[in-house]
């Protein structure tokens, strides 16, 4: 049977050979689990994704939500899929048994959720947003707020959103204008407009809990004046029953090029002066709180980009195996049989590029999930702190690198299908359209690159960066035990040495106050830093593939050799290609910085 969501053998390789998921069961929180329970959860996720999510992926693309009588109307197939997801417990996969959850490690929860993202990125967005909003209330809400809003979200009756962007501000959150006036009873009256709010209205749940950024009357200017509010679509009475409709109005829907099954809404708060909201935590600390949900969403967006790239790769791989066309260059006999296009070297090149991008990014996404487990449950406080610092550093890469290069994988999938690739009769064009949103979702490449170079590298005196460089050095040392990996290891070592020199120079420029000049080419830096990280993850996979081959499992030999070939491609084709970007960074090239706006 052809794989359509993700390759089970690759998932097992990542979980049990590269990331050693079974060692998590030695920790008290996960002691009731073992590989059998992990695999059972993964099997259930695959079953529900294939039965409920995948079948309406095209339908929801062709019949996007409609704005009727002030409400968003969705195709009927979405609700049974979301209900099946909730009934199986995946929205509470990480919660404690006592709270009705599965108490799974984040690593396994992410791996389960990857099936849904691959099957139907749009429908999977509704529970993803809800889980993020629930975690936000759980972390910073009052006990009363948790009882009134969090508990119904845990039960799957209420869904959630994050409401940040405004028409005039976009990503510049310091300029938001939504206002919140205290009314003396502990609640606030909000007034403002938010746009591009995913899941902002739908009929999938009893209520929608909006997490809204706004400013109090005494707010200081800029991001230090932002507060966070819970604003429900329907009011919730003291006994938990629903009250009247809150003054939150759906002003309209945006019609996107992809990801069409997720409502993208314009919401008006307080048009009638009666929008009730509740302050979360302390005043003026809302953006600090919201960063928890934003960072969780950034990793979720990165994983979504990976799984869309993965789905396109698998489809084009299956197509290339089955599509006969042409003959090899040395066969001049027109009477000879045509060969499957996978035998043509240029098609192999495009498939190998896709494999290198999506399986490298998939490894990184799961590695980030494993870091979350370490941050929360590692044995020592130092281990937990180290994991958190490394995860902070890697988050811009987890979000942005897959959003760029797994999109390129989708482009290659279209190319492999030739004339069929850009027709709507085949799914690869939808995968591309769906994935094209991810370079913008949750912060553009430019914003992530500014975060990486301008903040994350120097955070905690560079603790995360020192950790990363140490891990890469350790990986290269272990790789040196395998003579066959020398041609793969050496390009990575050379790239890291060059990148380190450039990084030290750029950080010196920042500390000297040359901010605009240093950050002008941050997007280039994000690419070369991302290639270093993915190169490291591919060398790790190559080491484990060598171990697998040495174990003598003949049935897995093709799998392991495929891993080694993909690692060889990325480390000998892609990583050395970063020299030009590094040279531009080293020279502090100011071509873009000095371009005058009147010259365009």
Explain the overall architecture.
- There is one protein chain.
- With 600 residues, this protein is an alpha+beta fold.
- Helices cover 54% and strands 11% of the residues.
- It contains 18 helices and 12 strands.
- It has helices spanning 8-18, 35-53, 57-62, 78-87, 106-119, 121-140, 143-154, 286-322, 345-377, 381-416, 428-435, 445-456, 463-479, 486-511, 515-519, 522-550, 557-574, 579-586, and strands spanning 66-68, 71-73, 158-163, 179-182, 188-198, 207-214, 227-232, 234-236, 242-245, 248-253, 264-269, 276-280.
- The strands form 3 sheets. Strands 3, 4, 5, 6, 7, 10, 11 and 12 form an 8-stranded mixed beta sheet that branches. It has a two-stranded antiparallel sheet with strand order 1-2. The protein has a two-stranded antiparallel ribbon with strand order 8-9.
- The protein is globular and about 80 Å long.
């Amino acid at each position: 049977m052809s794989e359509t969501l993700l390759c089970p053998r690759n998932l097992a390789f990542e979980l049990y050979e590269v990331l050693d998921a079974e060692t998590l069961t030695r920790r008290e929180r996960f002691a009731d689990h073992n590989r059998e329970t992990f695999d059972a959860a993964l099997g259930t996720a695959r079953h529900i994704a294939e039965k409920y999510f995948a079948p309406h992926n095209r339908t929801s693309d062709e019949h996007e939500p409609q704005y009727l009588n002030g409400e968003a109307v969705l195709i009927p197939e979405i609700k049974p899929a979301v209900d099946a997801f909730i009934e199986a417990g995946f929205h509470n996969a990480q919660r404690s048994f006592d709270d009705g959850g599965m108490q799974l490690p984040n690593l396994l929860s992410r791996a389960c959720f990857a099936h849904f993202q691959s099957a139907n990125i749009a429908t999977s967005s509704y529970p993803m947003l809800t889980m993020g909003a629930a975690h936000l209330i759980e972390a910073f809400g009052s006990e009363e707020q948790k009882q009134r809003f969090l508990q119904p979200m845990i039960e799957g009756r209420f869904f959630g959103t994050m409401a940040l962007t405004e028409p005039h501000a976009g990503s510049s959150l310091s300029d938001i204008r939504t206002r919140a006036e205290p009314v003396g009873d502990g609640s606030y009256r909000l007034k403002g407009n938010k746009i591009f709010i995913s899941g902002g209205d739908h009929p999938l749940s009893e209520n929608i809990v909006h997490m809204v950024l706004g400013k109090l009357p005494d707010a200081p200017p800029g991001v230090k004046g932002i507060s966070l509010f819970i604003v429900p679509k329907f009011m919730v009475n003291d006994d938990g029953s629903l009250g009247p409709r809150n003054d939150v109005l759906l002003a309209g829907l945006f019609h996107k090029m992809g990801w069409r099954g997720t409502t993208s809404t314009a919401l008006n708060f307080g048009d009638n002066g009666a929008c009730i909201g509740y302050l979360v935590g302390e005043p003026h600390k809302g953006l600090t709180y919201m960063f928890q949900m934003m960072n969780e969403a950034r990793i979720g967006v990165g994983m979504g980009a990976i799984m869309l790239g993965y789905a396109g790769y698998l489809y084009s791989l299956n197509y290339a195996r089955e599509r006969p066309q042409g003959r090899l260059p040395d066969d001049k006999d027109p009477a000879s049989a045509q060969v499957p296009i996978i035998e043509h070297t240029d098609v192999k090149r495009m498939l190998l590029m896709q494999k290198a991008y999506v399986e490298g990014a998939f490894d990184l996404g799961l590695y980030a999930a494993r870091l979350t487990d370490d941050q929360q449950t590692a044995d020592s406080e130092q281990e937990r702190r180290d994991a958190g610092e490394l995860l902070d550093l890697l988050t811009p890469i987890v979000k942005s690198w897959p959003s760029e290069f797994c999109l390129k994988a989708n482009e290659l999938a279209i190319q492999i299908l030739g004339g069929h690739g850009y027709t709507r009769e085949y799914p690869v064009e939808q995968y591309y359209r769906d994935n094209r949103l991810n370079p913008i979702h949750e912060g553009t490449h430019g914003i992530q690159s500014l975060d990486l170079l301008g903040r994350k590298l120097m955070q905690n005196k560079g603790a995360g960066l020192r950790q990363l460089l140490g891990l890469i050095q350790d990986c290269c040392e272990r790789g040196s035990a395998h003579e066959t990996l020398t041609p793969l290891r050496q390009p990575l070592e050379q790239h890291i040495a060059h990148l380190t020199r450039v990084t030290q120079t750029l950080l010196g420029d920042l500390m000297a106050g040359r901010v605009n000049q240093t950050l002008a080419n941050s997007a280039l830096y994000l690419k070369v830093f991302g290639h270093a990280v993915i190169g490291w993850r591919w060398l790790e996979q190559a080491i484990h593939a060598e171990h697998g081959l040495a174990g003598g499992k003949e049935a897995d030999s093709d799998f392991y050799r495929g891993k080694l070939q993909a690692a060889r491609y990325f480390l000998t084709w892609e990583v050395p290609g970063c020299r030009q970007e590094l040279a531009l960074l080293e020279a502090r090239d100011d071509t873009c910085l000095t371009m005058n706006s009147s010259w365009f």
